[in-house]
Amino acid sequence: MKKNNTTHVMAGVLMVIFVMAFLLVTGRFLYIQASGVVDGVSLDEWAKEVRTTSYKLESERGKIYDKNGMTLAYDMPTFRMYAIVDEKFSEGLEEDYHVTDPVNTAESLASILDADKEYILNQINQGIENDKSQVEFGTIGKGIPLQVKDEIEAMKLPGIKFIKENIRYYPNGEFASHIIGFAQKKDIETENGEIQEIIGITGIEHEMNDLLKGEDGFISYQRDIYNKKLLHPDEILNTPDNGEDVYLTIDQKIQTVLEDVLTQVDEKYKPERMTAIVMDPKTGEIVAMSNRPSYNPNNPENVQNWYNDAISAPFEPGSTVKMFTWAAAIEAGVYDGQEGFMSGSYQIQENIRPINDFNYGRGWGIISYDEGFARSSNVAAGKLVWEKLGPDRFLEYLHAFDFDKSTGIDLPGEIPGEILYNYPAEKLTTAFGQGSTASPIQMMKAATAIANDGKMLKPYIIDRIVDSDTGKVIEKNKPEVVGEPISKETAIQVRKLLVDGVQSEYATGKRFNLDDYSVGGKTGTSQIPDPEGGYLEGRENYVFSFLGMAPADNPELMMYVSVKQPTLEFETGLEPGSAPVAFIFNNVMENALHYLNIVPDKGEYEEVTTYEIPNFIDKSTESAQEFLKEHHANYSIVGDGAKIIAMSAEVGEKVLPNEKVILITDNPTMPNVIDWSLRDVTKLSSMLNLKLEAIGSGYVVSQSIEEGTALSKGSYLGIELKTPEEMQETQSNEQEEDTEEFFE
């Protein structure tokens, strides 16, 4: 009986505990149901967050074009490949969504990607064994071009997926690299965590980064555990805002000529530095600009020179400054060109070192100031400043020509020169470009006053900014007169002196005569400061330069060239430092003036004709060939396919007849590239995704892939190039050997 009572008591206690627990749990459920909150977390929001997936919609960075619409920089779509390896993603689907046959998948991918089959297979199997939902493939799965992606998708391999990733691409390699600069993906900290964004590092990419970069959008929707949209997904779409397009003032044709000529001089003379600027003196537009050393913005590694020397490397310019010294004297009314002076040596005070003319102070006896300019007499310059103008008045003209300030060109990193004008010796040497410094762009800006009848123009390199979506011009640069340091009459008189500096019998600039156009200009041979004091000595330790304009009477183009410490020919002892400078100036200016259809003021005039490139994509190879033949084009059709799938020129681009156009057919094979330029082979390798290795410079003399060989992505192409001089020398040597064999 006692036991029975105990049992009843315990049962009652347990019943009470059970009822309390039930009420507690029930109350908790009722509270959760009523409030929808657990531990301060809203269940509705939590469920929505779990069901909701979102993706970033990448914006496109604005393109950079030349003045005529040639693409210089753009976002190239590439793809990152991954594989779904969890079979649950295929449940309830008619087609498999995951990798069902790892071996076949690995073999198929390896054949297209030119990769190791075992590596791909191992990645897939490891993902399956470790219960991963998806796997990636390292470097071989990144940066996949659209064409290769399409080939893989055509194989319909289950589970192989792609994510689009843009990279910044520069189709012309080293072309205008210091102007365009480059942009790369960088990790950026935001309120929502770290993201990757393409950021401009140098050049226009950096200067115009805020305009070029777009704003990414996103898409979000609710989905099930298999990542499939629900019937009512509550989709939110925020479209991306693409960046604006920037059009430069540079002309791709003239820039190409400049780049090629600089490369030739670089190979032959191996100078320490080179800079060249081509400008329209009537507007201030930079038509072309380049430096050596340069770099490839697609692969900015081991760069020898990040700086744009044309705007960032002021130096003692030498005798090119004399055009401004003479201009100041003429404008001040103290100049008599026929007045004689004793050349050779000039000393203003006993305790100040005398200045000498460049022929070791021998001079040419008593000559006129006009002849002194043509002969580039330091003594004439010194006398004009010290005896005619007076140093203080000359300084006023230096300020009027803006040698004391930046030009304001729309490029980052400009560093102006400095007028060194504290002591009598400094005031004297500034007259002929020594001691004081100036940058090449400062020299060009000041020279616009001489070329443009006294009006000095601000140099600029951005032509216009265009809305990439609508094509509407947002901003347009216009010529800006920033000073008038001399009168029209003075400018005309100085231009006549510049012509004498090139064409007279005693001119130092005779090498700069063009065949079809009169040239006015001034040479410069500037000393290089020695870090240990004084100046470097030796025949090659100078910066050789020239600032010229043509046609001389009414300049349409103006060009500055400087070559620092070239390796000159010593065997004969006759090659002057102006030789590499003249080679650059003469080739670029003659070709540029003809290309722009500027009427020559000497020689016969032949108008340069161009033709416009139509859209050849998906057109028959036969029709494309007929068009190119009809326009007497220089072209190469790659392969024997029936239709065209890629072309080297932009649709609507105006092309010179001698400029090579490359068309890729749907069955590409290796063409014969003998006698091609490096630039054309580089275009070909880029279009076909070949790994190019080039030895030498000039034109191709041998190729590693035989003509007619089928091509695949990543194939190695080695080429050897030689300059015309090297080929002629080789031919002469072979003829000598043949002659020797004949007589033996």
UniProtKB/TrEMBL annotation:
Return the Pfam families for the record.
PASTA (PF03793), PBP_dimer (PF03717), Transpeptidase (PF00905)
- EC number in record: 3.4.16.4
Q: Start and end of every PASTA domain?
A: 607-665, 666-723
Q: Which family does it belong to?
A: Belongs to the transpeptidase family.
Domain of life per record: Bacteria
What metabolic or biological pathway is this protein involved in?
Cell wall biogenesis; peptidoglycan biosynthesis
Point to the regions of Acidic residues compositional bias: 734-744
Q: Which InterPro entries match?
A: Beta-lactam/transpept, Beta-lactam/transpept-like, PASTA_dom, PBP_dimer, PBP_dimer_sf, PCN-bd_Tpept
UniProt-recorded Gene Ontology molecular function terms: penicillin binding; serine-type D-Ala-D-Ala carboxypeptidase activity
Q: Which residues cross the membrane?
A: 12-31
> By its UniProt entry, which PROSITE patterns does this protein fall under?
PASTA
State the GO CC annotations: plasma membrane
Asked if Transmembrane helix is a keyword of the record, the answer is yes
**Per the record, which residues fall in region Disordered?**
722-744
Q: What class of enzyme is it?
A: hydrolase
- Keywords of this protein's UniProt record, alphabetized? Membrane, Transmembrane, Transmembrane helix
Compartments, as annotated in UniProt: Membrane
Which GO biological process annotations does it have? cell wall organization
Q: What name is this protein filed under?
A: serine-type D-Ala-D-Ala carboxypeptidase
Under catalytic activity, the entry for this protein gives: Preferential cleavage: (Ac)2-L-Lys-D-Ala-|-D-Ala. Also transpeptidation of peptidyl-alanyl moieties that are N-acyl substituents of D-alanine
Its primary localisation, in coarse terms, equals: membrane
